[in-house]
Structure formats: structure tokens, C-alpha cells
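Input (Glycosyltransferase RgtA/B/C/D-like domain-containing protein):
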Amino acid sequence: MTGMILALALLLRLVYINQSLWLDEAIEGLALMGKMGPILTYALKDFQPPLYHFLGIAWTQLAGYSEIALRTPSLLAGLGTVYFLLKFGQLLQGKKLGIVAGILAATNPLLIYYSQEGRTYALTAFLVTASMYYFFQLLNHKSKSNLIPLSYFLFTTLYLWTSYLSWFVFIAQFLYLLFRRRYDLLRWQFLAGLTLLPWLPSLFSSLAIGRSTLTRSPAWGNVVGSFSAKALALTWVKLIIGRVSFADKFLYGGIVAGVAAVHLFFLRLSLLRRQPLLWLWLGFPILMGSLLSIFLPVYSYTRVLFIVPAYLLLLSSGLASFRRQWGMIIVVGLQLTFLTYFWFSPQYHREDWRQLVHDLRSDPSAVVAMPSRAQNAPLLYYGWDQPIIEPCCEKIEGNKIYYLRYAEDLFDVPRVGPANLRSAGYTISSQVSYPGLQVDIYEHRN
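Output:
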């Protein structure tokens, strides 16, 4: 059964894995190629510990820099999360819970989405899940073998070196050990935490960079993850329906309310609802990440993807306790419905820079403009080698200007660029939309 669940997880994660890279993935790809400066310098600006980048360098030396190659580590990590969640369920409540948890993880739209993204999130979720699995074994199963404590130490160390917000999981584990008075296990935590000492100066540098960026551009905080009730609500909404939305807000609210009612019904039946470790895993990173974002905007549901397995374990326990099969059919059916809706809704797919560059190359007169060249990584990744102008503050030349209205709210709030284009004698002749991208084509009035 484990093999069938993993095969299902793999199949669902292969659909659209070759879609265009979006901005952050393209930046990561260029960094791994060495085009963003020294990798440690890049890691400071990325506000993540460097493990994912180091693994990426090793992997791309073998596999190259294609979309699929850059996403394969996340794909494998996503499968690893499914496997460990299945094993965790078996450990907590027997074979049935393991199967249910594995199926929910295999079909969860949010886990699938980030298993197809060349960033650190899926890897962090995998490492945290594995760490929690061995942590629970350490607490509840006596063994003379050192394999379990060493495995816990290994996966804990790895997740600490992968994501800063995962450090709140580390603190949650520490608090739980104190609560259970398992002081004998603190040495493994101490050893894992000790490995971070060489990186702490770099953390302070990252914090300084983040504060400096926020001072120069306050709107940046809203983009990367400011504290708000909406951000907290989105964490749960995206956890259950994935990266989709609905234009009709009443329809959106009704769908979310309906799915919420289904989930809450089964959560009430969960035999694990009195398991404080799972609630700490689920809630503590959200609480602490939200509080931290009051001072430094770092919180988003993307960055706490590693809490999804905890939620799925709680939900799986309720489904496993329910005697009728239709409960499982409804929950899995809802996940697959939202996943299918995502597949057939290009507006929710990643930014299609690949098609944009293809179309630009077909027009020899194309001149590319955008609010800030700081966002040009996808163009460079896909081989655009012509000059890119910033019409807000540079001389405008050319008969046809392709103006990418990308991150205008961050880099050109007063819309100086379009105003300068109009002042220079350009008018919009047409507009083209791609998933995640809007292009205004300006032509000069001769």
C-alpha cells in the first residue's frame, strides 16, 4: 500500500512540473549558476539558511538547470513528506491512520504545489516531518539502538539549516521536552542547535539587510509577509484548498465555509486532538512567526508549509475514527477537485516568463521596459540578452516598447514609468496577458 500511495503522490506531482519558472525560482536558478555573486552572499539576501542552496549546487552539477532539474529536489522532498507522514500515522494510531495520512498528504493541493517549486519550502516540510517522527519515537519507544536519536539529530540539524521559521519547531520541541520532563533528551537538541553557531553572525547580517530594505521600501513588507489577520486566515484556507481563488467573493466564502465545516466535523472526531505535540507543531510556528512579523515581515503560509503535515495527522485521525468510507471519499474528493480546478485554471499557474520571452524574440523591434530591473531574473534565465529600460528614470528609445507591469505597486507606486512613456509620445496599442504577467505594448506616435 505504501508503494501505491507514493506512486499516486508522484503522478500528481509530475503534472505541470515543467511549467515556466517564476521570479523567485529564476533567481535561485541564476544563483546556482553563479550569476548572483557568491552563494553565501545570496543566502543572506534570501533570508534563509544556506543548506538548500548548497544542495542545489551539488544537484545542478549533475542534472543541469532546466525547470525540471531545479524542481526535482522539491519533488523528492514532497515524496519524502508523504512517506514519513504515512509512517508517523502508523506510529501514532496504527496502520489505518498511516494509510489515511499518506493519502491525504499525497493529494493535498498545497503540498503538491510546493513539491513543484524550486525553493526550500518542500524540503523544510520533509525535514521537519522526519524530525518529528523520530522525536516522537524518542519520547515513547525505549530502544538501546542509537539509530533513532541519531536520526532525530540529523533531520533536526538539517531543518535548522534550511529555514529560519522552522526554528520555532525546534523551540516547540524544547518546550515539550520540558513539559514531559525528558531532560535526558535535551542533549540531542543541544547538539543540533550547536551546529548553528558558525551561521549566527550571518543571521544578524540578514536581519540588517531585511530592516534596511523595509526602511527603503515599506511596501516590501506587504509582499514578503507582513502581520495581518488576513495572512493568518489565508494560512488555513490555502492549507485546505491550495493555490486557487474565486472572483466571486460570496462563492469563495461559501466554498471555504463548506470545506471548513467538513474539516471541523472530522477534527472533532480526532483521537489525536488531545495530543499537545501535534498542536505545538501546528500552532507555535504560526503564533511566533506572526509576532515576529510585527517587527520584520517574514510570515506567510508559504514559509510555514511545514505545519501542513501536523494538520493532516489531526484530520486523518478523525477520518480513521469515522466508521463510514464516505468521509474519506468526501475529503480526498475535495482535495482532488481543487487540484483539478488549479490544473485547468491558467491564471493560478506560475508566471509564464518562458512564453513571454518566446514572443519577445519573435518581434525584432521589441524593447523591454519594467518598473525595476531588480525583477529581471526570469528574463535572464530564459536568455533575453537585450537592454531592459526603467522608464521611470531612464531615456526611452525605440518604436515599440513592451512594458511589463511587474511589481508596480512595489517599485513604481505613482506610476511614473507609464506617465513618462505617454509624455515621450507613446500610446498603448495593445495589451497581452500571461499567467501572472501583464504587458502593455506602447508604440510611438510618428
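The first helix runs from residue 2 to 14.
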